[in-house]
Amino acid sequence: MIIAPKTRGFICTTAHPDGCAQQVKEQMEYVKSQQKIDGPANVLVVGASTGYGLASRIAAAFGAGANTIGVFFDKAAEGTRTASAGWYNSAAFEKQAEELGLKSFSIVGDAFSDAIKEKTIDLIKTELGSIDLVVYSIASPRRTHPVTGETFSSVIKPVDEAYTNKTLNFHTGEISTVTVEPATEDEVRQTIAVMGGEDWKMWIDQLQAAGVLAEGATTVAYSYIGPEITHPIYKEGTIGQAKNDLERVANLLNDQLAATGGQAYVSVNKALVTQSSSAIPVVPLYISALYKVMKDKGLHENCIQQMYRLFSEHLYRKDGTHEKDRLIRIDDWEMRSDVQEEVMKRWAALETDNVNDLSDLEGYRRDFFQLFGFEAKGVDYEADVDPNVAIPHQV
Ligand code: NAD
Fold first, then answer.
1. How far is the CA of 47 from the centre of ligand 1 (A)?
2. Which of 53, 137, 172, 189 has minimal Cβ neighbours within 10 Å of its Cβ?
């Protein structure tokens, strides 16, 4: 069938297998063009199919030659419905890994459940023996607690006070003012339950109890801080409360892993267009302005450049020393004062009429469609493609 993008708000309900494969190949080629990472042999990535998790998996496999297990929640094609982008990304990843003789396995299911954790542990025992690095990169709107059965929903809201700022409809280019009402106490609790550290700790506890973490095993989860204008909706909002919890858990996990020489980190990453970030009010306009400024200054990075830097300069430093800070800042270029000053100057002036001059709306849109395999280089979108693609080593 011919696959075209079908958008509904900030989601696209179709994905293109060849476009996703092309994007994975480009990320792989970037990593292969860089210096080899003296890194982990066996890596587990929870939330491995898109965004930062996919880039982590690619950096580990093609930068360090690691065997990988990816856990993610994606759907195969069915009837006239295409598979989700993460499905096609993972199929393409596995094909490339296989060609290089690397072991790679994919587990599709709910990472929050005990069943998926048990399945992953069994797979490690039979195929890899042990894991050197656990990357925790889940972004989810919901979580069902494996013990209590309660289903939590996360919300992106300020805490205490309503928040008003400019926001962008990136499909039409229209800038308007949005007001987001504050979260209730229960919404804060539920967001922490979904996006905080409890599930990350459950993964590490269960992996450790099963004896499948190698000596010196390291773990990392991802966070965001960002500029003051987004603090009410992010850093100080519901999601920020969840990220504080993630940092709290990183300290606990670090103590827990220290006995075997391991570490736990939170890496603060740059704001980038992903399926999760496009759903946050205000943030897409900030990202458009940021892209423009960082591209003009030659500082722009995508997920893969960020993850290569995380692996090569922090987790597996070239000088062989350990990263000292629990909180790793690879948002350093985004937060540089010259970058932020320029973004804020533009922010004050941004309106619908000048959005294309003052921000990189075009780049934002292209990145958004590329998340779903559209607008990729060299792909014939008029060609008939089979949406049914198998993931070679799905377990
Ligand atoms: P994303 O939406 O691209 O990826 C989320 C991943 O989680 C996907 O692989 C998805 O399949 C998986 N997932 C979701 N629910 C799952 C479930 N129940 N079971 C198994 N897998 C599940 O998101 P992203 O933007 O790459 O975010 C990853 C992490 O990075 C998050 O912690 C996010 O807060 C953080 N982060 C993102 C940005 C940004 O700008 N995008 C910046 C800094 C930090």
1. 6
2. 172
